[in-house]
Amino acid sequence: xxxxxxxxxxxxxxxxxxxxxxxxxxxxxxxxxxxxxxxxxxxxxxxxxxxxxxxxxxxxxxxxxxxxxxxxxxxxxxxxxxxxxxxxxxxxxxxxxxxx
Length: 100
Known about the structure:
Order of helices and strands: HH
Shape: elongated
Distance between the termini: 50 Å
Strand content: under 5%
Number of helices: 2
Oligomer: single chain
Radius of gyration: 18 Å
């Protein structure tokens, strides 16, 4: 069981075309695919938690199962929020750099 819910990838495989990171080819599309996949996993973990909550209210799922699903969804959301915060901080650092 992956408590975070995000799939781990090997960063060495991000740019397999052999081109430099300065080009907007494979590197940009790979980053977009990774971002899209992470958001999709976040949405699916939230949806799974909602289904488990509904199942617990109707008696089809145990309370323990619903609480585990909620904890997994919360962990996934916490990781996504931390990543977003780091990306925003990196962007702000880059924008504050002086060119000259």
